[in-house]
Amino acid sequence: MNRSAEKDLTPARIVEALDRHVVGQREAKRAVAVAIRSRWRRMQLGADLRDEVVPKNILLIGPTGVGKTEIARRIAALIDAPFIKVEATKFTEVGYVGRDVDSIVRDLVENAITLVREGARVKVRTKAREAAEERVLSYLVTSWQPGDSEVELFTNGPEGRPTMQDLAALRVKLRERLRAGALSERPVDVEVASGGQALGNIFGDQAFAQTGMDFGKIFEQLQKGRGSGAPTKTRRMSVKDAVEALTEEEAEKLVDDQNVATEAIELVENSAIVFLDEIDKVAGRQAGSGPDVSREGVQRDLLPLIEGTTVTTRHGPVKTDHILFIGAGAFHVSKPSDLLPELQGRMPIRVRLNALTEQDFVRILTEPRGALTRQYEALMGTEGVRLAFTEDGVAEIARVAAAANLAHENIGARRLFTVLERVVDEVSFAGPDLRGQTISIDRAYVRARVGDLLDDQDLGRYVL
Questions:
Q1: Rg value, the chain, Cα
Q2: pLDDT, tens digit (0-9, with 9 covering 90-100), for 353-392
Q3: Are 20 and 368 in contact (CB under 8 A)?
Q4: Which residues have C-beta within 8 Å of that of residue 385, sequence separation ≥ 6?
Q5: Alpha-carbon distance 392 to 389, whole Å?
């Protein structure tokens, strides 16, 4: 995101943007919005003070399914920042080798590389498309044969062969027709990159990641040094598809890998967001042996990343001092004070998220841009079936979900997926045979399909 856009992204506007996707949890949204704005403010400071400002790391406390992950994911998308979600418990697995907590930063860098490279491709796309069109024109001119029904050519050369002037005229005419779209469906044989497997993919990227060296790139350079170049293969496709495929190739050639890596590392160091889920599962500082030792070990491994350290990656060293860490957990059994004091001190902003109510479920089903009811309506619309969720139908779905959460494990908004899937199961299965029909999802329709499951507690335990 450019500087002017960041300046306009005030905390109030961040919260407003999050409200379009996440219902409620205003305190959590405000905390995240302030943390993001604080990072922009830090970048406006002089170099002498900028490095002294630490990120406002956040600890989100609340049951599953209330929006913790969604808030972090949406804010990362909003500011075009590298984002990764990791479960703290994954580092406690017995015999887990090949990856460590530093892999969090390495994965962030790879995500940033993708973001920066995509942006760089967009900038050079116009130039890349022109180069791709010229390549396609060369293939068309080369494959031209006398008597071509689409393009007439005067053959003034010896034995009826076209002269250089003829070929130049042919190229001009083909270019005009190509840009007018007249040749879009014409087949053409083009040479494209074969997409051979990189060395890192063969042995596993993680096998080389911890060395800080890009062996795949080294191997590629060795191939070029021997004159082998990038492997290609000939494919027959339409002119339209050929232009698109070659545009991607040409854009890749125009992107400077070194600049991409440098910009990606800078992006990670100043804008990345790490979401540490289930951090409550590694809380525990009791003396002894067994799981508690493993949990405390994970906390001690994570601590340097959050405090600020330098991690070696194959694209270069990365400082984690200003990466924003958002921890999250239900803390049903443990409590935040069970975390190491050093870890608690590095997550000073604590926000408790509220459990979702029946009314929250109604809002979740209707208010967000990607509300579940809109998703199901759009999905069935592809079959020519119109789903109509009535107000009382939505209210009944919310009531059933809330009752199921109360009677069984409270999984928050995720319960809506279970209930809705049960409600529309018959329509989804028979969709192709219901083309042109309108199905009204009202209270009676919902009760007929899920009411008995709530009445039978034993059955509801396994189905809902």
A1: 29
A2: 888 889 999 999 998 888 899 999 999 999 999 999 999 9
A3: yes
A4: 427, 431, 434, 435, 436, 437, 438, 439
A5: 8
Alpha-carbon span 422 to 405, nearest angstrom: 16
Q: What is the pLDDT of residues 41-96, one digit of tens each?
A: 988 888 888 888 888 899 999 888 888 888 888 888 888 888 888 888 877 654 44
> Which domains are delineated in the chain?
3-111+264-352 (3.40.50.300), 123-261 (no CATH), 358-453 (1.10.8.60)
Determine the Cα–Cα distance for residues 276 and 108; give it in Å rounded to an integer.
13
Integer Cα distance of 260 and 293 in angstroms: 41
Place of tokens 């779209």: 181
- Give which of 135, 138, 118, 139 is closest to 252, Cα–Cα: 118
Q: What is the 3-state secondary structure (H, E, C) of the chain?
A: CCHHHHHHCCHHHHHHHHHCCCCCCHHHHHHHHHHHHHHHHHHCCCHHHHCCCCCCCEEEECCCCCCHHHHHHHHHHHCCCCEEEEEHHHHHCCCCCCCCCCHHHHHHHHHHHHHHHHHHHHHHHHHHHHHHHHHHHHHHHHHCCCCCCCCCCCCCCHHHCCCHHHHHHHHHHHHHHHHCCCCCCCEEEEEEECCCCCHHHHHCHHHHHCCCCCHHHHHHHHHHHCCCCCCEEEEEEEHHHHHHHHHHHHHHHHCCHHHHHHHHHHHHHHHCEEEEECHHHHCCCCCCCCHHHHHHHHHHHHHHHHHCCEEEECCEEEECCCCEEEEEECCCCCCHHHCCHHHHHCCCEEEECCCCCHHHHHHHHHCCCCCHHHHHHHHHHCCCCEEEECHHHHHHHHHHHHHHHHHCCCCCCHHHHHHHHHHCHHHHHHHHHCCCCEEEECHHHHHHHHHHHHHCHHHHHHHC
Q: Flag whether pLDDT at 293 surpasses 50.
A: no
Predicted TM-score of the model (pTM): 0.75
